[in-house]
């Protein structure tokens, strides 16, 4: 593949309802949509999952734009690409900035699969025809509000309910949920809201048969998580702490977790995500695909990677309508009985709705080879 031009677009979309984590609340989603166009005029699409502000990790929309414009795109234009797996090596002298790398890498994977006329899932080696999905519910004003929302999603068929937790919005909340929904697959995601000093509070959650607790401790930690896991029955799942294959290898070796949430952007792209998947499979660590409130392009990539065998647990890739009045892909992503049918068309398998993209674009720039 030889790229002719790349278009970066800054999009802004309103979430249907504000999303609240242990860090705070937001209702507007800013992100970069990447369109990579080759010599034949074929477009591949990628989506950066960095947020407007650096609360989840250190990256932002602006830092991603800077990395793409000043470092990554020049490397992309420098030489033809035989296979997207080469990009890991080509980008390797740039430290971190994984979401920026992933955004362009994802566009090139889509382009690659389209040139081969195969679905992205197949290009990645995935075989599932449909994938099971759960839902991630933010912190609510009251437990009653939360129970009503859970009821709605359980009725819709979502296969696992994840609720955000933090000190003070945890034991009582989970107890109430279990009272009303005794046998659903249930988990909590703390986004690093606890420290080892909270160990008794976290142990108190053991009685509720949670599927896992996601990222209880610091976002850069795998040592304290190992201490915690040794004292908890509930499996720990790492999200923020895993940025690479090497991080995953070390966390597994230390016993810091029993499950890993793979987010393509957080680990620097599909190639690295696949490597982590394979490593986890060898070590009997189940994985699932996390979400970053993506629009349709990012969610399509999530669906494709989830077709790999060791993605045995429902992911966070909910329906388009859960997030947006109108998504940027056609058809929109729909969930029936907690399942998404994997698209069979070439590449990401959804068409980008250019009219919607234009409506949401606040700034765009074209970069030529
Ligand atoms: O920690 O998994 C997370 C959303 C934004 C940032 C981090 C996280 C989340 C979610 C929601 O839990 C996932 C989604 O519905 O896309
Ligand atoms: Mg998480």
From TrEMBL:
<dbReference type="Pfam" id="PF02746">
    <property type="entry name" value="MR_MLE_N"/>
</dbReference>
<feature type="binding site">
    <location>
        <position position="189"/>
    </location>
    <ligand>
        <name>Mg(2+)</name>
    </ligand>
</feature>
<dbReference type="Pfam" id="PF13378">
    <property type="entry name" value="MR_MLE_C"/>
</dbReference>
<dbReference type="GO" id="GO:0016854">
    <property type="term" value="F:racemase and epimerase activity"/>
</dbReference>
<dbReference type="GO" id="GO:0000287">
    <property type="term" value="F:magnesium ion binding"/>
</dbReference>
<dbReference type="InterPro" id="IPR036849">
    <property type="entry name" value="Enolase-like_C_sf"/>
</dbReference>
<dbReference type="InterPro" id="IPR013342">
    <property type="entry name" value="Mandelate_racemase_C"/>
</dbReference>
<comment type="pathway">
    <text>Quinol/quinone metabolism; 1,4-dihydroxy-2-naphthoate biosynthesis; 1,4-dihydroxy-2-naphthoate from chorismate: step 4/7.</text>
</comment>
<keyword id="KW-0479">Metal-binding</keyword>
<dbReference type="InterPro" id="IPR029065">
    <property type="entry name" value="Enolase_C-like"/>
</dbReference>
<feature type="domain" description="Mandelate racemase/muconate lactonizing enzyme C-terminal">
    <location>
        <begin position="143"/>
        <end position="235"/>
    </location>
</feature>
<keyword id="KW-0474">Menaquinone biosynthesis</keyword>
<feature type="binding site">
    <location>
        <position position="239"/>
    </location>
    <ligand>
        <name>Mg(2+)</name>
    </ligand>
</feature>
<protein>
    <recommendedName>
        <fullName>o-succinylbenzoate synthase</fullName>
        <ecNumber>4.2.1.113</ecNumber>
    </recommendedName>
</protein>
<feature type="binding site">
    <location>
        <position position="214"/>
    </location>
    <ligand>
        <name>Mg(2+)</name>
    </ligand>
</feature>
<dbReference type="GO" id="GO:0009234">
    <property type="term" value="P:menaquinone biosynthetic process"/>
</dbReference>
<comment type="function">
    <text>Converts 2-succinyl-6-hydroxy-2,4-cyclohexadiene-1-carboxylate (SHCHC) to 2-succinylbenzoate (OSB).</text>
</comment>
<dbReference type="InterPro" id="IPR047585">
    <property type="entry name" value="MenC"/>
</dbReference>
<dbReference type="InterPro" id="IPR013341">
    <property type="entry name" value="Mandelate_racemase_N_dom"/>
</dbReference>
<keyword id="KW-0456">Lyase</keyword>
<feature type="active site" description="Proton acceptor">
    <location>
        <position position="263"/>
    </location>
</feature>
<dbReference type="InterPro" id="IPR010197">
    <property type="entry name" value="OSBS/NAAAR"/>
</dbReference>
<comment type="pathway">
    <text>Quinol/quinone metabolism; menaquinone biosynthesis.</text>
</comment>
<feature type="active site" description="Proton donor">
    <location>
        <position position="164"/>
    </location>
</feature>
<dbReference type="GO" id="GO:0043748">
    <property type="term" value="F:O-succinylbenzoate synthase activity"/>
</dbReference>
<comment type="similarity">
    <text>Belongs to the mandelate racemase/muconate lactonizing enzyme family. MenC type 2 subfamily.</text>
</comment>
<keyword id="KW-0460">Magnesium</keyword>
<dbReference type="InterPro" id="IPR029017">
    <property type="entry name" value="Enolase-like_N"/>
</dbReference>
